[in-house]
Amino acid sequence: MSKQLLAINQMLPHGEMLRGFLEQPFLQKTDLKEALRKRGVFNYSNEKSDSIPILIMTVLSPSEFDSLCDSQSSREDNPKKITQILPWSSDKNLIDALPSDLSINNLIDNEYANYKVVDETGFIPVNNDPNYLRLDFGVERQDLGKNWSSTKSHFHGSIEMKRVVDKEEVKIIFTHTSNETKQVATKATSKIVGRFKSDGFVLQNVELQKITFDRFTNAKRIQFLLELSVELTSNHLDFEEIVDLELAPDHDQILPENMRWMTNKIDDLKLNGKLLHETFFVNERESHPYIFLHRLDARYSFDVRGVTGKCVVAMHFPDGNKESRGKSELELNIKSISFSGVPKGASKKEIREFLLDDLESQKSEKYVNYING
């Protein structure tokens, strides 16, 4: 959540002031590309370094500026979940194994960092379960040098640890709402795992199992995402359609005839629309080995304890279209949600969290079938 100065509503940035705004990390190259496309401008390159000069020279309209500002809140305030699995080699409960001197507030080792950890709760048993712990924290960020547009921003994050006794594993789930909360949660997890190893609760040669882009072949990556969307079986969610796809052709292979038009022409392809699961990218399995699919957004109808509505869920490998795509971890977030009526018996936030937890659980269960694939 951003705390904005009044000035942002009274001015329209231009020149170097506009450059500083456009270069901020919460604005991605796809945001700038979309702003240009709406003007009918199609650039040969999607990189920010090529889009920014064009926008500076032509100046943003008030509505375009508002749209880009909204990108921060929609991208950062929307909770995203990542699940990791840690094999467990002890009979000890999590609450007893946890380091007593753990403080994530000490994990920011960069003295020049523009953020700090606030409101840390420490790990607390959920429902008094010694094998189910949760830590909540906040991050306060100050965008130094950009105080014309904002002062401080506050973001929430959490880390959950669940010991699954019959599977001899600990499920680690962290929820983040910004790059900073993701960094803090990642560092905290690494520190905790290190202490578990040194204390003998986890074997030294064991690594966290993560759902990363390079864990799948092209075809199995698509199939896994389809199992979470088109083929999903849930008591609360019913699939309706795929509304967004981001993909790239695998140019390391000779593309089949139906994809040959992409050779040496298409690096990344973003599709928005309706019933995209009926396109050949999705419904023709023979095309799957030649496609890097790094984002799929699906619309579902839902029913949670009588509360009904529709939601769009984004399944995304954030760096899937970059050179670092290999280690990019799969993230889930509810991109949008609407209700048929005023929710009763539960808040909109609680319904959103319930649905996201349901999908996150199914993601982990289905992934087991792909670990050795």
Description:
There is one protein chain. The protein has about 375 residues and is α+β, with helices and mostly antiparallel strands. It folds into three domains: about 5-75, no CATH class; about 80-210, TATA-Binding Protein (2-Layer Sandwich); about 215-350 and about 360-370, no CATH class. The protein contains nine helices and twelve strands. The protein has helices at about 15-20, 30-40, 50-60, 60-75, 95, 180-200, 220-225, 280-285, 350-365, and strands spanning about 80-85, 115-120, 125, 130-140, 150-165, 170-175, 210, 235-250, 270, 290-305, 305-315, 330-340. Strands 1, 2, 3, 4, 5, 6 and 7 form a seven-stranded antiparallel β-sheet that branches. The protein has a five-stranded antiparallel β-sheet with strand order 9-8-10-11-12, covered by helices on one side. A hairpin with a 4-residue loop joins strand 5 and strand 6. Helix 2 crosses helix 3 (about 50-60). The longest helix has 20 residues, at about 180-200. The relative contact order is 0.11.
